[in-house]
Transcription factor bHLH61 isoform 1 (Theobroma cacao), 157 residues
Amino acid sequence: MVSREHKRAALHEKLQLLRSITNSHALNKTSIIVDASKYIEELKQKVERLNEDIAAAQTSNHQNPLPVVTVETLEKGFLINVLSEKSCPGLLVSILEAFEELGLNVLEARVSCTDSFRLQAVGGENEEQSETIDAQVVKQAVLQAIKNWSESTDQQE
C-alpha cells in the first residue's frame, strides 16, 4: 500500500513540476500533458528559427568575412582585440602601421595567424604626443586598416 501511495505522490510531484516548467494553468493530468506537448512544439519552433538565424549569419559572414574589432580604454592606453574566423595574411602589418600612424606604442601583444586571425594588443600613447587619443579613434583607425587591407587583397585575387 505504501508503495502505491508513494508512486502516486511522486507522479503528482512530477506533474506539478511539469506544470510549472511549461507555465500551464491546467489542473488535471491530461491537460497538463497537452500543455507540455504544446510547449515542446513551441520550443522546437524556436530552435528551428534560431538555427535559421545562425545559418543566415554564417552565410553573411562568408560573404563579408571582415574581422571584428573591439577597443577598451585602460588606465594608460588601450586593449585592442581583432578577431577573424579565417587566416588574414598581411593584416597584422596593416594594423601595426595604423598604430604607428596614431602614435600608439605596442606595449604587449598576442597574435595567432594559423587557421584564424587573433590579435590582442595593449597600446600606449606616445609620451611625446600632445593630443590624447580616445578608444573610438583607435577603433576607426584599425577598421580603416582592415578595410584597406581587404581592398588590397581583393585586387590581388
Q: What stands out?
A: The two ends are 80 Å apart (CA to CA). DSSP finds four helices and four strands in the chain. Strands lie at 68-74, 77-84, 104-112, 117-125. The longest strand covers residues 104-112.
